[in-house]
Design goal:
Elements lengths: L9 H33 L8 E5 L8 E10 L4 E13 L2 E6 L10 E2 L9 E3 L4 E3 L17 E7 L2 E8 L2
Antiparallel strand pairs: 1-9, 2-3, 3-4, 5-6, 6-7, 8-9
Subunit structure: The main subunits of the menaquinol:cytochrome c complex are a Rieske-type iron-sulfur protein (QcrA), a cytochrome b (QcrB) and a cytochrome c (QcrC).
Family: Belongs to the Rieske iron-sulfur protein family.
Keywords: 2Fe-2S, Disulfide bond, Electron transport, Iron, Iron-sulfur, Membrane, Metal-binding, Oxidoreductase, Transmembrane, Transmembrane helix, Transport
Amino acid sequence: MSEKNHNVSRRQFLTYTLTGVGGFMAAGMLMPMVRMAVDPVLDAAAEGDMNYLVEFDELGEEPIRRELTYEADDGWYESEQIETIYVYRDGDDVVALSAVCTHLGCTVSWEGSEDYPEMFYCPCHFGLYERDGTNVEGTPPTEPLHRYEYEIRDGAVYVGQSEPQ
């Protein structure tokens, strides 16, 4: 291959040099600001925390409503969060479902409509869910109710984060 003769003028050399130096200086100034904004969000200290919900002996086959109150720290400030959970026993297993409708975030209720017994019902947009949280075809929700991870310690049920089914 033949080598081509590349001549760079003084003006091009200065342009390339100043652009590179300016880019490094801008990155050096922006990185601390970006890191300050992103680090608290990436801090996953609260993940995996289990919160007391109910005594295991109180559970039956009928879903009961419980309020879960906990302190949440999102990196910038702490706040008190309240979540509504429906929990019941399914044999030796525990089912803990979020009461937040997956359609638009309304609150569902167990047997909330006389027309739909033994179902979770969202009165805002007439959403329906089966007992296990599965959404009913032909109603607004497009996915099942979220399910909480749980563990049983000393005869009590503790729940963690909710996850899609």
